[in-house]
Amino acid sequence: MIDTHVHFWNFDPVRDSWINDDMFAIRNDFSPKDLTAVYNDLQITGCIAVQASQSEEENHFLLSQAEQNEIVKGIVGWVDLLDPNLEERLTYWSNFKKIKGWRHVLQAENADFILNKKFIAGINLLKKYSYTYDLLCYYNQLTAIIEMVDQIPDQPFVLDHCGKPDVKSQDLKSWSANIKTLASNPNVSCKVSGLLAEADWKNWEEKELFNCFDVVFEHFGPERVMYGSDWPVMLISRPYQDWFNLVTKYTERFSAAERKLIFTDNAKAFYGV
Q1: How far apart are the C-alpha atoms of 39 and 66, rounded to whole Å?
Q2: How does pLDDT run across 186-224, given as a tens digit for each residue?
Q3: Contacts of 261 (CB under 8 A, 6+ apart)
Q4: What integer is the mean pLDDT of 256-273?
Q5: How far is 51 from 62, CA to CA, in rounded Å?
Q6: Distance of alpha carbon 134 from its chain centroid, rounded?
Q7: 3 state SS for the chain
Q8: Residue 158 to residue 226: CA distance in whole angstroms
Q9: What is the pLDDT of residue 15?
Q10: Domains along the chain with CATH numbers
Q11: 106, exposed or middle or buried, with CB in 10 Å at 0-12, 13-18, 19+?
Q12: Upper half-sphere CA count for residue 194 (Cβ side, 13 Å)
């Protein structure tokens, strides 16, 4: 099994200022070694390390983690897609085979950024190098995301954290409609990950999360959904095993072949690991 969404960092209170005081559980260093025991227990054999800092230094940091830890099967890094020398940068990074794709923290940007022609042109260049692109956004940004991906044919996209629905309020109407539209694009997949951060961290109920799973699986199907944990961010709510067990419980309704797609094969095919 492959966990398609984990982060590693040496905690820096300035650089990582998004990790506020309420998130004291993750104001620490996290490395692949911290996952070894839980992965062995759950028979998870590898992970995709996703950027948490928007710098090319982050790519080198994640590459060093991959070199030292065989559980890191692939990396989703960061590169400036507005850089006039983007092609030169992509050519450079293509020498590092563990880098499978890229991500920008679009949840911190507005629609004008997402629909910027230069930004779209940058993503459009990725398929030349067989790179994937992770979409990180809030549910209220999905209309711009839909408009953006529709302009970039044949580019493999994956929606991180189900597009961050408002799990806490359970106001899922607009999010559900946009997920249906986004999933109609065959180039977009979805990670079942990160929902604990959008819930009431300590008081969520299983049904609230399963309501979101229902929408994702209805529209993407098990053929385009992949398991991810969003570790260590999810530790603000629960231990790793709790999230894994939750996804496992929900997916018991699927066939063995479909569960293999969700936990293993979709990740291998999408990220080329």
Answers
A1: 16
A2: 999 999 999 999 999 999 999 999 999 999 999 999 999
A3: 222, 223, 225
A4: 98
A5: 8
A6: 6
A7: CEEEEECCECCCCCCCCCCCHHHHHHCCCECHHHHHHHHHHHCCCEEEEECCCCCHHHHHHHHHHHHHCCCEEEEEECCCCCCCCHHHHHHHHCCCCCEEEEEECHHHCCHHHHCCHHHHHHHHCHHHHCCEEEECCCHHHHHHHHHHHCCCCCCCEEEHHHHCCCCCCCCCHHHHHHHHHHHCCCCEEEEECCHHHHCCCCCCCHHHHHHHHHHHHHHHCHHHEEECCCECHHHHCCCHHHHHHHHHHHHHHCCHHHHHHHHHHHHHHHHCC
A8: 9
A9: 81
A10: 2-271 (3.20.20.140)
A11: buried
A12: 21
Write the pLDDT tens digit of every residue in 219-242.
999 999 999 999 999 999 999 999
Distances (CA, A) of 255 to 39, 88, 258, 260, 262: 23, 45, 5, 9, 11
Nearest partner of 72 among 22, 36, 111, 25, judged by Cα: 36
Give the span between the Cα atoms of 65 and 75, in whole angstroms. 10
Cβ-based neighbours of 79, under 8 Å, separated by 6 or more = 56, 59, 86, 89, 90, 93, 102
Residue among 98, 106, 91 nearest 62 (CA): 98
Q: What is the dihedral of CA 116, 118, 119, 125, to 10 degrees?
A: 150
> Taking 80 as the threshold, does the pLDDT of residue 13 lie above it?
no
CA-wise closest residue to 157 among 172, 146, 143: 146
The tally of CA atoms less than 13 A away on the side-chain side of residue 167 is 26
